[in-house]
Amino acid sequence: MKRGLVQKTDIDGSACETGPNAILLSDVAVQNGEFSNLSEFPILQMLYRQGMILPGHPNNKGARPLLIGLKEQVAAQLAYIHRGNYGLTSKEELIAAGVPEAEAVEWMRVKQRFAFGRIRASHELIDSCIIGETPVDIRPGVTIRRLDLNVYEIRHGTDGVVINLNLEPFETYEPPYPLNYHNLRREYFAVVHSGEGDGWDVNRPTMSSVLMFQGKVFLIDAGPNLHAVLKSLGISINEVEGIFQTHSHDDHFCGLTTLIRADRRIRYFATAAVRAAVTKKLAALMSITEASFEEYFDVRDLEIDRWNDVDGLNVKPMFSPHPVETTIFAFQALSESGVMSYGHYADIVSFDVLDQMTTEDPNLSGISPALAAKVRDSYLMPVDVKKIDIGGGLIHGSAEDFAEDRSSRIILAHTAVELSNTQRKIGSGAPFGTVDVLIPSVRDYALQKAHGFLTAYFPDVPSNDLEMLLNRPILDINAEAIVLRQGELCGAVTMSLTGLMEVVDNEGDSRYLLSSGILIGECACLHERPVTKTYRAASFVKALTWPAEFYRNFIRHNHLMETILATADMRGIFARTRLFGENVSIPVLNRLVRVSSTLSLKPGEAVDEGGDCLFLIRSGLLDRRIGGKVAEVLEPGDFFGESMVLHGRRPLSRIIAHKACDLIAIPGAMLRDIPIVRWKLFETYLRRLSVLVAPSGVGSVFPWSADYAVGVPLIDHQHQKLFEIANRVILAFDRGDVAETSRTLFELFEYNKYHLDEEIKYLKKIAFPDVEQHEIIHAKFRKDIVVGMAVWKNGDAMELIDRSEFIEFFHAWIIDHIFKEDRKFARYLYGGYAE
Known about the structure:
alpha+beta
């Protein structure tokens, strides 16, 4: 929509939108902590905004939206869309979620009304196209084939395009709107307005709020791009105490994976029915069990229509009619001037629609007069600040219904259109990042956070000594300011108390975020050496700093130098990895160091993955083999063993040392209690499983295997390059592309000539005793190449060589040569060679 690919138009007097009618799904449901396949709103846009399902609409021509992808991803999307449309789908499911039977019967009547009398299976509304190992037709004349994990080629006639759906490490999906930085004070009771748009708004985040109570941070709903929203507000994931969930539609739900990226389970507050609908939808989307939800969140069910105490904050969820289980929320806190309150009314229904739904006949779909009156009273309950959904239509509210509302301040939200003059007289707007302070704080909660961080980091230091560190001014650091630059001597140690810091690692050419509570520059300070990375403020940051000499004296005074230095190097290894480098606090890293052990492997040695243990590679290379073929080469910082840790099942792959390796073994029990680590293990498990159940189409012709490796990085790299070019020859041949087939054939021959020369140079350099015989073999090989190039240069490569001949040629000359001849100098290098 932001790119202009979806436009408003008019067809024969019917207003509608343009847009795509098919969705290509990612092979994996999650990448880098975010959902990859969220087709709920795109499908809705096709069905309703394009008019594909509207009776009498010119675009209703019998065609249905199309889901394209692997069988398991298409099935997961159909199940997730079904739950997104209806939530809990039977009286029995509602009763199982704790809803009394009489209420469950009435709630199902409400659902039936929104569903136009019948709950439909997703396949009644959506077509699907399952991709296997061969090209399949999408539409007449259009085909798609899978080339590799998340890599597809779509062709129409002689035209084609390759689509790569993979995200790079630490890459995230870009939000459609820019968000400015905000420097938020942690208040006693306040509402931060973090979104006023709806699911179609390309300029603002969706309707949501951030609650601050006694300096703690709570969220109301988790919409798209939550990571960008929190970063802009200067809130780190580990600072979030909990989330209050109104319902399970994607514009309020799909940011939940962001909250999983913490090093502890964040509390999840909702009624049991809303929680059940959310877990069923998440389980369908991820193809996991519903019980898995509690492995990532600390679930706290709220009683509906009653005040619930949450750390002194009173919370009342109230029923709101909607296609899925939905509650509105009222929050109360006591101040010296009385009770102050906030109402968050997302996805309410207009009174006109409520009246149309109301019926006294219990056998008809709709709502009883008594429940309708209760809903109306809940909507109009006066509070100090009330944010309301005015999206209109069949399932959203109307500002005009609140014209006589006695609340002190009304905020209009959940809309993507400009407010009318009538609406402007009823309620206010609330631009992103604005704050309504209900009870101001007279204390700085940042100092309280500092005490908590230091107590966790120095558990054995007396409180009077910690006061030495706390007796410092709290500094405000501007967003994007450099705190420490690589190569500089560390003049001070910095602890961020709120906000996020960014690490720029030049060695790995990467950057990642650090949560609050991290000590920056500690190792460089204690070792009195330059820092090895650059640290920048990724948002507004509040921090404590200690001059380097002062901090060293504190450490010496408490006899901590030996302990800290003993764990610092190992902690640094953990912190530099993708698995542990993000949002894992220093106390958690220290616990990981204490429970971990190390082991070493010799070249060719296999790893037993039979225990409840994860292995982190500290040095060396390992091959992950499936059926004798190398599926993945694991490098320092990579890990394996996630199948045993998550599911207690041995993987189908084998791990074999490519060269001498040092590993760190980490007990699985501890990892399962760290949500962000558990989630990344799950991501990796899904990705590796996708490769296993749906191997790449191209790589199956000439798959590189560690069995071909000779143990010389230069030579192995060149051999892998030959395999890569050969696979491209086959791809071009299969497409019938004469020009590309000829071009890649000559590329293969030219690169092989270069490789033969480089290999002989290397053999002479290491004084390989059989180099002359090797040169004779190369000379014959080179002669055959020259002959082949001369023939193909004067004719059509497609006519002069067939696919099977090329495969036979490559196996005979390249692969067999590696096995028979190049392995000889490998044995010469590593022992076992006999002339």
